[in-house]
Amino acid sequence: MTAPRQPPTVLFVDDDPDLREGIGESFELAGIAVQVFSSADLVLERVTRSLNGIIVTDIRMPGMDGASLMRSALEIDPALPVIVITGHGDVPMAVETMRDGAYDFIEKPFAMDRLLIACRRALEKRRLVLEVRALRDVLDQQKALAARLVGRSWAMERLRAEITALAGTDANVLIHGETGSGKEVVARALHDFSERAEKPFVAINCGALPADIIESELFGHEAGAFTGAARQRIGKIEHAAGGTVFLDEIESMPLDLQVKLLRTIEERRIERLGSNRSIGVDVRFVAATKEDLAAASASGRFRADLYYRLDVANLHIPPLRERRDDIPLLFFHLAREARARYRREIPEMTPEMEARLLAHDWPGNVRELRNVADRFVLGLYRIAEDAPRPREAPGMDERSLAERVDDFERAQIRAELKRSEGRLKPVYERLQISRKGLYDKMRRLGIEGAEG
Question: PTM 4-aspartylphosphate: at which residues (predicted)?
């Protein structure tokens, strides 16, 4: 869980109790948060890369002196400002600490205003360092998320933004997506980019567990709780302590068990089967469904109170047919993964096959596309005729003829751009259209010139 943000704080260390008290009062009167310490060891315990503060230390102290404290603190974070206070005879030592990385040094006796000015500058520098690090972390997270959830469509950009916004919270999340759309991938991203990432991620497929054992799987049991329960067993929810519980196909959970799950989510406590003892659990709940749970709860097939408890935040994974422009990019991403698994080179993609990939409805979504990418890399799709074809059932493809033609032209142009490594002349020559005609089509179809 996200800890409260610490205010910018000065960690002041000196072995003189009168000076500590006076300096502490002066900082407080100036509106600067301060913590005072009698030894360097106590300060060093509080130094981390995320410390929102600075160190002000006397240079001569019993035990660890100020110079040693500074060196140890800078080993933890080289960008941490350390201000050294020195006596008149210790100026050469203070100059040496400046060479070793001290932010500033102040010679005793000093005016309090001089120290306050130096501390305010140092705290501002620290604020900027932490802000830059936070921005870099966000960018790194966005890159990592884009590698997991591949796609340039607006729907995927929105999904990644929503995951980023929710990952750092403990809000319950309900993920909705069709079969094979990547619901567990989204759930794992919510876990891996949260502060619970080092704790267990426990996935439970409610549809795959028989009704007579799902309660024991979730909540555990004591020895002798039922026939065959020879030993105590820790349930999945308890095992996930500090982490995330992912309930896939939540619509398949029996109604009587939904009551117990609701109580667990509300109270964050469980009772093992055969026990009267209540056990606290610190977990985050993420559920996934391919059904409309609002409709299921309205018809009595799913408890409405559990639905509303789970639906604090709702993530929708778009099916592939609703983001056809992502299909080529995602296919080559999956093909690269297959190349690494099978140690095979990726065959050349023909424009005809790419067009058919775009035209297919992909009822199995990413899972189905991954299977095709695997077979393609294994050499089982050597000719375009083997590629998936659109389903011919009437009414399955609701796109207009113009939309289908646009998809086909888009696929052809992208394939040729890839083949020519982004050079336009070979593209319009092979397609037998004018240069202006190619530019016009690329602009109308939203194709960038550097694609491929």
Answer: 58
Q: Give the model's pLDDT for residue 353.
A: 83
C-alpha to C-alpha distances, 149 to 212, 321, 363, 403, 444, nearest whole angstrom: 36, 16, 18, 26, 27
What is the domain extent for residue 85? Answer: 9-133
pLDDT-derived band at 451, boundaries 50, 70, 90: very low
Neighbours of 278 (CB within 10 A): 11
Would 28 be classed as within a structural domain?
yes
Instruction: Tell me how far apart the alpha carbons of residues 19 and 37 are, in angstroms, rounded to a whole number.
Output: 11
Q: Which two tokens stand for residue 168?
A: 């750092």
Q: What is the pTM of this model?
A: 0.63
- Are 313 and 400 found together in one domain? no
pLDDT at 272 over 80: yes
- For 347, what's the count of Cα atoms within 13 Å in the CB-facing half-sphere? 18
Nearest to 288 by CA among 180, 209, 361: 180
- 301 plus 338 within the same structural domain: no
Instruction: Name the domain count of the chain.
Output: 3
Shared domain check, 217 and 129: no
Q: How far apart are CA 51 and CA 69, in angstroms?
A: 15
Residue 208 lies in a domain: yes
Residue 443 phi/psi, 5-degree rounding, is -65, -45
